[in-house]
Batch of 2 targets.
Target 1
Amino acid sequence: MTEETPGFEEKPDVPSGATPDDAEPKTAPSASADGAAPAGDANQTAGLVAQLDQARKALDERTADLQRLQAEFQNYRRRVERDRIAVKEIAVANLLTELLPVLDDIGRAREHGELVGGFKSVAESLETVAAKMGLQQFGKEGEPFDPTIHEALMHSYAPDVTETTCVAILQPGYRIGERTIRPARVAVAEPQPGAQPAKADSETGTASAEAADDKESGGPDEG
C-alpha cells in the first residue's frame, strides 16, 4: 500500500503534442506596408472631389433660383403697393366727386353772403376735410385757357387780350394730385379779329418812317 506525500497535488493531464504556447491568443498578421492601400485612398479622394463638385454645382443652381424668386417677390410687392395706392386714389376720387355739387352750393352761398351761422361752420369743416383728402381747387380769372384743365362754356372777343383767356369762372375745377376730377368751366375771350394785324402794321409803319428819316438825314451819325 502506497502512502501519499502530503503537500503535493496532481496536475491535470496535458494532451500529447501540445505546448504551453498554444494557450496564448495568436496575433493577426499585419497589413503590408505597400500594396492596395494607397490606391484605395486615391480612388476615395477622387470620389470625394467629384461629390464636392456636384454639391457646388447644385448650390449655384439653388442660389440662382433663390435670387430669381427674390426678384420676382420684390416686383410683386411693388406691383401690389402700386395697385393699392391706385385703388385708394380711385376710391377717394369717387367720394369727392360725389361731394362736388355740395361744394359748389357752398361756394355760391359764400358769394351771396348766405354762409352764416351754423351752416358756415359745417361748410368750412367739410371743405377742410376735403382738402385733407387731397382735393385742390383751381381756376382763376385772367389765366390763359388750357383745354386740358378748362372747359369753355362761353366764348367772346375782347380787344384787351392777346391770347385766349379765361375771363369768368363759372364753376371751379378740382384735382387730386396730378389727376383732374373736374375741369374748370369758364367763359373765354379771344383777341379781337384784326387787332393783331393792325398793331403789326402800325409797328411796321413806324419802323418805315424811322428808316425814311434816317435816309433823308444821311444815315446815323458816325463817331
Target 2
Amino acid sequence: MNLIRRSKKSTDATANAEPPLNEIGDVGAVAAMFERLRQQNAQYDQAIAALVAANRISIGWDKPAEPEMTLTIQREVLLALGDTDALAKFDQQHQQALAQEHAARVKATQQGLEAPTRVKALEQYLNDLAGQMVAGLDETLIDQEIRRIFRPSAQRMLDAAKTFVQAWREMQSVEAVLLQRVRLTHTRVTGDTCTRYDHELIGRQRDGELLPTLIEGVPFEELRELNDLFTSTDNELVTALDTALRSAGFDGWGLKVYHPKPQGDERSIYAPDPNPPKKVLAPYVGNGVCDVVRVDV
C-alpha cells in the first residue's frame, strides 16, 4: 500500500509516474555479465556431473558393463581351427554384429583405462572455468548500478523526512506551549498537594513506531496502520520492480561464482556424489569397536 496516495486531480503525467521503475535505466552491462555467468553455471554443473561419473568408475564404484563376446569367441575358435571357408562365411553373416561387439569391448576398456585421465581433465576444465567466472565478473560495476538505482528513492525519503520532522516539531511545540499555559496547581486548604488533571495530547512513542498511537485529533486506527506500513515494504512496488529488473536481465538470483584453486593447491575439485555406496556398520563383539564394512550396490 502506498503511503502517498495520488490525488484524483493529478495530471496524467503525475498519475502514470513510477519513479523507481523509470530509474532502472540501462543495465545492459550487468545483465550481460549475469547471462554469461548463467551459461557458465550450466557448464559447471554439467562438468561436475561428468566428474562424479568419472570418479565412480576410477575408484571402482561403477564398473563398465561387460560387453557381449559370444560371436567374438566363435570367430576365434574358427580362426584357431584354420577353417578359412567357415571363417569367411561366418564373417559375412555376422559382420555388423561382430563390429558392434568389438566397439562395445573397446568402449568398456577405454572407460576403465581413461577414467583417471578423464578425472584430471575434468578438474582442469572446472578450475579454468572458475577462473573465467572470476575474470568476467565486475562486482564494482554491479555495486555502482544498484547504488545508482537506489539513490533517487533515498533522496525522496530524505525530502519527505525533512517535511515530517518539521511537522513533528511543530506538533510538539504546540503541545509544550499549550500544556504550559494551562498548568494549574491543585492544593488542599490543609496544605496537602492534590493530583492535578493530566492533559495528554501526545502519547509515549514505543520502540519501532514511527508515531505514538495517541495523538489528539488523529484516529488510533490510522496511526496504527501508519506504524505497520512503516515497518514493511510496499508489496506492489516490490513485485513491479522485481519483474522489471528480471525482464531487463538484472537478475543474479541463484547464480554462483566459483573461484579457482590457488597455485599449488593439490586438493580435488569438490564434487559430492549424490548417490554414494551404502555403508553398513557391522557390530564387533569384544571391545565395543565397530568395523566399517562398505557394500557396493
